Amino acid sequence: MKLAIYNAQGYDKEYFDRENLRVGHELCYLDFHLDADTLKLAESCEAICVFVNDQVDADLLAAMSRLGIRFLLLRSAGFNHVDIKAAEAQQIPVANVPEYSPNAVAEHATALILSLIRKLARAHARVREGNFSLEGLMGYDLHGKTVGIVGTGRIGSVMARIMTGFGCRVLGHDPAPSDPCRELGVDYVDLPSLFRAADIISLHCPLTPDSLHMIDAKAVALMKPGVCVINTGRGALIDTRAIIDGIKSGKIGYLGLDVYEEEEGMFFEDCSDRIIQDDVFARLLTFPNVEITGHQAFFTREAMVNIARITLENASALEASGTCQNLVLPKPVV
Ligand code: NAI
């Protein structure tokens, strides 16, 4: 199958080329975003492949259908950037990579927690300046703390296992609690109870209309003073202005973000020569107790191998049978 791979970075090319040796699809790499104009370049392709930073809305899907594009392949687990209902209406099957490395994301969330509570970024900057004073660098033990995990699916359950290994008490909140997590000792509670009890809160649920801004001013008000909040899920799980108010008041002790609600057009790009226009993001960068990474939690060698392999397997299955085991279906209306 001929596949247009949008927003292809050097690392995408490396891993897709390597995995494609086994399956032999025709891969056309495009190093820019998918939009109404760039879509025309995929005219002769049967499938389009996008990452999380391309918004695929109803208009774009209609244009794809007119162009004869048969399939949409996501090289991500999350699919909140695609209008799945519109894809179904256009009869364009959408396939994702539901599990490529839950370890990668959970380990990154853990790295953010440790870096924040042990002030590693500040310590590193000081030592480089020849300043070996410990003033202001006191941290706290993770052992014995209460960690609240919101969403205990693939990534959240790995996170629960890691946090249990540190000797933490783990609270979970999930509309579909997991038996393996329960066996691990995770106590499931409602969201307000989790916010009230947790020393550290880590978000691992998808972004849906229900979870949009699940951390807002009301949620922040419930939290323990000095709480550490980690978001490696999706940016808009947090109302950024509300959490900034929480940091300014001292309620939020630490904030670790790998995702940001307005990350589109900024993350995954080298913007170092540009002036940041987003004042809310610029404010976040001023706090000593905030650490931000640019959506890199997934980014390990192991995850890249799996993303490339599973995306190409999805392409092969769709080409052969019109369907595949990783189809993303619209949520049934209840
Ligand atoms: P998953 O589908 O295995 O687990 C998600 C869990 O969240 C499920 O158990 C579900 O029942 C639960 N859930 C749904 N709505 C909820 C709500 N309102 N409150 C609490 N729990 C809720 O997904 P997985 O693989 O664990 O990924 C989780 C999210 O992590 C993805 O949706 C994606 O947004 C994000 N992600 C971020 C990456 C990064 O690089 N930063 C990489 C991969 C995923």
Q: Can you walk me through this structure?
A:
- This protein has 334 residues and is α/β, with parallel strands linked by helices.
- It folds into two domains: 2-100 and 301-328, 3-Layer(aba) Sandwich (Rossmann fold); 102-292, NAD(P)-binding Rossmann-like Domain (Rossmann fold, 3-Layer(aba) Sandwich).
- The chain is built from twelve helices and twelve strands.
- The strands form two sheets. A seven-stranded parallel sheet has the order 8-7-6-9-10-11-12, with helices on both faces. The protein has a five-stranded parallel sheet with strand order 2-1-3-4-5.
- Strand 9, helix 9 and strand 10 form a beta-alpha-beta unit.
- The longest helix is centred in the last third of the chain and has 21 residues, at 301-321.
- The chain is globular.
- It starts with a strand and ends in a 13-residue tail after the last helix.
- Residues 77-78, 102, 105, 150-156, 173-176, 204-208, 210-211, 232-234, 258-259, 295, 297-298 line the site of 1,4-dihydronicotinamide adenine dinucleotide.
